[in-house]
Automatic annotation (TrEMBL), chain A:
Protein name, UniProt field: ABC transporter permease
Chief place where the protein resides: membrane
Compartments, as annotated in UniProt: Cell membrane
Keyword flag Membrane: yes
Species classification: Bacteria, Bacillati, Actinomycetota, Actinomycetes, Kitasatosporales
Source organism: Streptantibioticus ferralitis
Keywords: Cell membrane, Membrane, Transmembrane, Transmembrane helix
Membrane topology: Multi-pass membrane protein
Amino acid sequence: MKKIDKERLLLGIAAPVLALLAAFVVTSLVLLATGKQPFDAFQIMGSYGVKSDSQVYILNKATTYYLAGLAVAVGFRMNLFNIGVDGQYRLAAFAAAVVGGMVNLPGILELPLIIIVAMLVGAMWAGLAGLLKVGRGVSEVIATIMLNAIATAIISYLLQPGRLAHLDANTNSVHTTVLPKSGWFFTFTTNPAAGPIEGFIVVAALAGVAYWFVLSRTRFGFDLRTVGQSESAAQASGVNVKRMIVTSMLVSGACAGLVGMPTLLNESHQYATDFPAGIGFTGIAIALLGRNNPGGIAVGALLWAFLDRTSNWLEFNGYDKEIVGVMQGVIVLSVVVAYELVRRYGLGRQQRRVGEQLAAAARNTAKQEQEAAI
Amino acid sequence: MHALVGENGAGKSTLMKILYGMQKPDEGTIAIDGEQVTFHHPGDAIARGVGMVHQHFMLADNLTVLENVVLGSEKLHGIGAKARTKILEISDSYGLGIRPDVLVENLGVADRQRVEILKVLYRGARTLILDEPTAVLVPQEVDALFDNLRGLKAEGLTVIFISHKLGEVLSVADEITVIRRGTTVGSADPKTTTTKQLAELMVGSELPSPETRESTVTDVPMLTVGGLRLTAPDADGVERMVLDDIAFTIHKGEVLGLAGVEGNGQAELVEAIMGMRDADAGIITLDGADISHAPTRKRRENGIGYVPEDRHRHGLLLEAPLWENRILGHVTEEPNSKGALLDNAAARRDTERIVAEYDVRTPGIDVTAASLSGGNQQKLIVGREMSHRPKLLIAAHPTRGVDVGAQAQIWDQIREARREGLAVLLISADLDELIGLSDTLRVMYRGRLVADADPATITPEELGSAMTGASSGRLEHVATDADAAPDADGGEER
């Protein structure tokens, strides 16, 4: 048995390694085609990415990506494709920024209030898609894409001077009321030159632990995974599939609500027109890369943040920064292909092994019987 | 017509997969028409005229019959009118009764099998491989199938089929090969071999019989169903009554056998009792408690064990390890969980116990359920359900696709639990099993319970004719009736 376990581990690592190798090869070819030296580029990325200020930047960025990856992964484990993480976290961050700006409580109340509002709004927005799916049979893919567009429209309607936002005369930007200091999340500094690490990384890590614990150690998690693997078997086993769809969308949305929090609580302290968008889609790539596994998602998030960080430096050194986009795209594509290939190979291999072992056992008993007969 | 018999896990399926190009042999040769061939994938086999009807149907539920048939062979006759004509032509010439525009998800298992056979013929197969083709059919249908197969043979086609029903094998095959533990242990001439000899060749032991000797029926009702009605849209989208005023009682220690041609409401009845469908009217009482509208999980916790008809769809998580499959369906019960938390260690220990006690042949509990053979998967399911000491066991085709050894074991388990007061609702297409195990027999036809019979005196032929709607009420064994009844199957709907 040990052997099969070790093999499973190897197979598990094989897919991302294969994918990354493929991505390197393709990116090298693209660089060569544009007349650039690929290895110089990789070296520039490598040496820049490990600088201490880069490390801090990567950790901070990865915090946001990690939460987005988790939000998507919750859906994936259920066989639900929540494309709407993007709209969910923006609407959630906006609502949280508005509520947080309106009240001024001590930090011990202010912070939980903001975070809970964000999670509730995210959950509600995703839950709508869940209700539509179980009630009217609307595919969650379509519903969440549409809800993304609606979230954008709602935010741009409300984010106007005189409604829920103010015009900043100096910078000419529109933003919500700045959060009181009590609503700022803590940061910590390891190296003054590198800048502060955002405290929300702790929350993200806790979310990862909670994700792992709930999915693999609780009854609820088992039910959720069951529905993801076979809806018919789940129903026969006593899971209320419809309720589970709504619940998991709520969980996914609540997690998505956290995605905007590092930015809001640790950086901007307000929701302005330049609030980062599109992280929900990055989350899909990261969840795929991480195989919906909390550890894998962390690696994926760090990799993505690393690539983001180095893209500017590449441009500074005379490369096109778009090469990083190409790289990210190729990684996602090859990850999907490699996982499926490795999965099939692993299943087939296991079936053969089981067959062989049983045949061997049967041969042995047959031999013993014969010997006994003699 | 060549029959292949052997226990589950003996290697029949693997051999068939090799013949069909789904798996590559390590050594050895295959020759067709005297010509040596190598298949790298099923496409090569199809090109050589080898067609396969799998035990687990390979059909896309959300496509129509026509679409399923042309899928992958669009080049033959297109996907439109020409294909339809061809399908109807094949269907008519072999009497398969195919309706091309029905969605496959709305078909019963027997109809699906016919679609599979047609699919193979449509691709121009000259050699047909059938994996347990008769497991889902009633005697009359088996005869019809064998007539079809003889027709195919007369036209020069070759048929290889796998069956556990040795009587059938002897009556229809021209040649028999027995395999055990991955090797050919012998071949037999059906003209001179008896069932007993064949069975001994196959397992090295006597043929088990499902017969139940002493009665353990008590007068304490365990499951009472009254006035149960259920409507559902049929193949053409029309709301139809699929369960019509169903009423019966199963007592402690009683096995109630439900006979019926597939698609007459048995599956829906099971799903209504399990709570997977909410009945429109009627009362279901389990051990004195009204569970008419209780959710499935509650019913399972209250003591219903369920061996589903389609183990891949309803009984297993194929890509999950065995120990997670042991939790499936009983996640709220000991030893799988404590409060809201799973107890993985205890579940694993208990899986080891089930594997040992129920002789599930596997190298360990961490392999996926998909890597086990069908019979071993079934043993795991039976073991799991019995481990929770059910009050009522719903066993739908508990021994379908299961070898003789495992079959006897499953029968033993049902009998033993019955002695301890278990009530069993048994649904089976194997009439010998149904008659042998049951204390009471009911016949289901078009959503109604139309007849009942005493298993002690009834013959499979009499039961079979009642299943086609030819007779109703209390079935009495009359020697002269037996000869006339089997022809009267005109009432069956195709």
